[in-house]
Amino acid sequence: MIQPQWPGLGPILSSLTLGRSPGDGGIAGSLPTAASDGVSSSWWRSTGVPAGGTGGTDPSATMWTLLQSIVGLLGQLVGAFTNGLGSASGTTLPGTQPGAQPGTSGPQQRFADVDISSTGDPHLAETGTRQTAGGTQAIDEHFDSMTSHDDLVSSRAIAGGYQVSTAVTQAGANGVTWNESATVRANFDQDSVTMRRDGTFSIIDGDQFVDLNKGESATLSGGETVTENADGSLVVAAANQRGGTMSTTLRATGNGVDVTTHAHDLAVGGDVVQHGRHAHHGGGHPHQPVATPIAAPVEAPAL
Length: 303
What we know:
Elements: H1 10-14, H2 59-84, E1 109-119, E2 123-132, E3 135-144, E4 149-155, E5 162-168, E6 179-186, E7 191-196, E8 201-205, E9 208-209, E10 217-219, E11 225-228, E12 234-239, E13 245-252, E14 257-268, H3 271-281
Antiparallel strand pairs: 1-2, 1-14, 2-3, 4-5, 5-6, 6-7, 7-8, 8-9, 10-11, 11-12, 12-13, 13-14
């Protein structure tokens, strides 16, 4: 027996067996049989619903039943076709991985080297060398932010995406906050590393937790490496096939989590990069700018 080309079509084709009776799932039941006068009935009159109990058939009802069967069959064919685009083992095609790719929103800029950090209570900084159409440009931007950042820094130049986020504590005296935790997400959001301010951390590889001891390293499914240093800090590193690299150090201080991300030869975006871009071009309002008191106007001396 010839197997159907698309997975899942076997049951559909088998449902077309012409020898079935009208009520067992065939489209139009069994083939029409010859009438007593030796003339075969038309296929649309071979089965049907009695019309008015007179023993005849109602062609419109029979046709409606047939149309319903055809519509159902078409639906099954479409479903089998779309299921056939995937793998019978349940895997997905490239580009259809579950979860969103971290760092896919907002413009990104290319850097030769850049360090982006969130430290202390917290102070954000962007220092390094930006690549421009005319060459390179040195950058050195600093500002304060008392809020959480879902996209502190990110890059979609890393396969599967790479994004660093922070969540701050409740504001204390004078509105001061600290990074309660920081998380690196990658591999279409399937891999994550979270450090909390008490020094505890969690590493998730797909749907598995990864144990790590000081001095040890682990490679996650997306290719990222996670290393626990002797001081308890974590380094999450990733690279692309063009030589671009991105690594983030997460260090608990007791008060908060210090975050430093270094990117080399990579397009990078996120809140800190956007702040630096606005500050450099002098346009718009920087993201989470430092509050600067406005000087009182100076009155002209009386003549």
